[in-house]
Amino acid sequence: MPVVTIPGSKSLTARALFLAAAADGVTTLVRPLRSDDTEGFAEGLVRLGYRVGRTRDAWQVDGRPQGPSVSEADVYCRDGATTARFLPTLAAAGHGTYRFDASAQMRRRPLLPLTRALRDLGVDLRHEEAEGHHPLTVRAAGVEGGEVVLDAGQSSQYLTALLLLGPLTRKGLRIRVTDLVSVPYVEITIAMMREFGVAAEREGDVFVVPPGGYRATTYAIEPDASTASYFFAAAAVTPGAEVTVPGLGTGALQGDLGFVDVLRRMGAEVSVRPDGTTVRGTGVLRGLTVNMRDISDTMPTLAAIAPFADGPVRIEDVANTRVKECDRLEACAQNLRRLGVEVETGPGRIEIRPGVPSGTGAEITTHGDHRIVMSFAVTGLRVPGISFDDPGCVRKTFPGFHEAFAELRSGLGDDR
Length: 416
Ligand SMILES: O=C(O)C1=C[C@@H](OP(=O)(O)O)[C@@H](O)[C@H](O)C1
Ligand SMILES: C=C(OP(=O)(O)O)C(=O)O
Fold this sequence. Notes:
Elements: H1 10-22, E1 23-24, E2 26-30, H2 36-47, E3 52-54, E4 58-62, E5 72-76, H3 81-92, E6 95-101, H4 104-108, H5 112-120, E7 124-127, E8 136-141, E9 146-152, H6 157-165, E10 173-180, H7 183-195, E11 201-203, E12 206-209, E13 214-215, E14 218-220, H8 225-236, E15 242-246, H9 259-266, E16 269-273, E17 276-280, E18 288-291, H10 299-305, E19 313-316, H11 328-338, E20 343-346, E21 349-352, E22 363-364, H12 370-379, E23 387-388, H13 401-411
Parallel strand pairs: 1-13, 2-14, 5-6, 9-10, 18-19, 22-23
Antiparallel strand pairs: 2-4, 3-4, 6-8, 7-8, 10-12, 11-12, 15-17, 16-17, 19-21, 20-21
Helix pairs in contact: 1-2, 1-3, 1-7, 2-3, 3-6, 6-7, 8-12, 10-11, 10-12
Bound molecules: shikimate-3-phosphate and phosphoenolpyruvate.
Binding site for phosphoenolpyruvate: 10, 109, 157, 328, 371, 396
Protein name: 3-phosphoshikimate 1-carboxyvinyltransferase
Pathway: Metabolic intermediate biosynthesis; chorismate biosynthesis; chorismate from D-erythrose 4-phosphate and phosphoenolpyruvate: step 6/7
């Protein structure tokens, strides 16, 4: 039964790169994710004057607690929101003029609550075209620190960026949060900061980060839990199939591993052990109502297998999936409807009715979103004739996805 090697976590790799760059000393990242997002992040650091040594299985970063070594830089963030939100924040701690731009897709995505908070902290940051969007320029002169208010109801990445910045400020930061989504990602940030020598704390709505800087370390990156969701879902929709992902188990930092609890509720057999996780398809897939506010990157995974459940699948509290790589609620609805599935959406919810009419394969409109491709590839295990208008957009987080999924397919006895 298939044992699947999942590439490193995008979220952990991006944070580790920031922390390594900001730390005093040389940090080694073991098994980082090598994909468009994380390579774009590393490339951005190089543009800002950091030395990043890359071999296949380890990346080494020479940290500079005082910030970028160059006084001017032009950084292209590609499609990566972690890059586009974390790197301008890192640059703010330095001294110089740094310009940031991003792909058309990333230019459309918001970051105003973050840039507003940075301005409130005294950072000279200007949006060049649309307010709250890339491109932008930071004229950095260090950050004094203090208290700031932040609305992270659209993206937790705004809070993560400020938390990561905290130890680089002179006085530390107190971040008062008025709303917050994707809480487990903030927990990852705090846990990783601790590994780099900083104890950030949450006191109700206030996140407190002491000044003092980071310490370099050696950091091993976990496999990516959001990526693993496609392989777990594949097992759940295939009666008798069992998929094991080593390296992602009880001690995992990533909230998205919680997707297996959704599969368990639907009827799959799930075992989460210290050394890995196994999902077994039982032939039972029940409909359910589930709140995915904490694990919304796995919303498309669930939407894509929902028609195979025996009752409606209602996914709630996922309004912020409308400002990801695309409007994911509408993209899921559009593609499911094209397959003949009945779907309803609301501002922050989607409801999918059971049943896929036979012989209804279709070309999936990906909107350049890696998760739409990887999710509907799972649908393709049960619906023949699914293809994608842009299969290559998986490069954002998993360039080898199609090969790995084809291998899984033949491991499940499906040689289509
Ligand atoms: O901090 C991170 O690494 C991420 C946070 C989440 O974003 P939001 O907080 O915008 O939901 C998630 O969707 C994204 O893929 C990665
Ligand atoms: C939303 C995602 O990415 P980003 O880091 O660009 O927000 C994602 O990977 O699903």
